[in-house]
Amino acid sequence: MGKFALADEQLGRIVICRKCKARNHAGTLKCRKCGSVYLRPKRKEKRVKK
């Protein structure tokens, strides 16, 4: 993704809450902010505008 491998590794271990868009540590079962259980992993690749 980027030019820093260590930073890419750290970003890969983040999950995003689908409800409030907060960043959470990987492995969490619920959001730290709103308590929602609807989490998704952070995207690895950049999205390109059309």
Largest sheet: 3 strands, antiparallel
Low-confidence parts, pLDDT < 50 over ≥5 residues?
none
Shape: flat
Order of helices and strands: HEEE
Spatial gap, N to C terminus: 19 Å
- The overall pLDDT, averaged over residues, is 86
Structural class: alpha+beta
Number of domains: 1
The main sheet orders its strands as: 2-1-3
Rg from alpha-carbon coordinates: 12 Å
Percent of residues in helical segments?
Answer: 10-25%
How many individual β-strands?
3
Number of helices: 1
Portion of residues in beta strands equals 15-25%
Task: Give a written overview of the molecule.
- With 50 residues, this protein is α+β, with helices and mostly antiparallel strands.
- The chain has one domain.
- It contains 1 helix and 3 strands, in the order αβββ.
- The chain has one helix at 5-11; strands spanning 14-17, 23-25, 39-41.
- A 3-stranded antiparallel sheet has the order 2-1-3, with no helix packed on it.
- The longest helix is centred in the N-terminal third of the chain and has 7 residues, at 5-11.
- The radius of gyration is 12 Å and the shape is flat.
Topology:
Blueprint: H1 5-11, E1 14-17, E2 23-25, E3 39-41
Antiparallel strand pairs: 1-2, 1-3
Q: Quick summary of this structure?
A:
With 50 residues, this protein is α+β, with helices and mostly antiparallel strands. Helices cover 14% and strands 20% of the residues. The chain is built from 1 helix and 3 strands, in the order H-E-E-E.
